[in-house]
Amino acid sequence: KYDLPKDMVVNISIYDLIGKNIKSLINSKKPAGFYSVAWDGTNNFGETVSAGIYVYMIQTGEFRSCSICC
C-alpha cells in the first residue's frame, strides 16, 4: 500500500537478492490518492519465479524505499 500527496510518476519493481530486476509492477504517472498493488509471483515474461526472498523498491520523485517481500 502507498499514498501519493500529489500527481507523481511511480515506479515499483521487484528484484532478487543479487539485484536483478525480476518484475516492473508500475511505471506510470498516478494521480494523488491511496493505492495498493500485489505481485503475482511472476517475472516480466509472465513465468512463475522460484520461491525465495525478493526485494521491492518504490520510487516517486526523490523518494525511494526498499523492503523485503516473499
Describe this structure in words.
With 70 residues, this protein is mostly beta strands. The protein has no helices and 6 strands. The protein has strands at residues 2-4, 8-15, 21-30, 33-35, 54-60, 63-69. The strands form 2 sheets. The chain has a 4-stranded antiparallel sheet, with no helix packed on it. It is elongated and about 35 Å long.
Q: Topology of this structure?
A:
Layout: E1 2-4, E2 8-15, E3 21-30, E4 33-35, E5 54-60, E6 63-69
Key descriptive features of the protein:
mainly beta, four-stranded antiparallel beta sheet, two-stranded antiparallel sheet
Q: How many strands appear in the DSSP assignment?
A: 6
* Low confidence ranges: none
Radius of gyration: 12 Å
| Nearest-integer average pLDDT | 94
Shape: elongated
Strands across the major sheet, in which order? Answer: 3-2-5-6
Characterize the biggest β-sheet.
4 strands, antiparallel
Alpha plus pi helix count:
0
Query: Which class of secondary structure composition applies to the elements?
Result: mainly beta
Order of helices and strands: EEEEEE
Helix content: under 10%
End-to-end Cα distance:
16 Å
Q: Approximately how much beta-strand content do the residues carry? A: over 45%
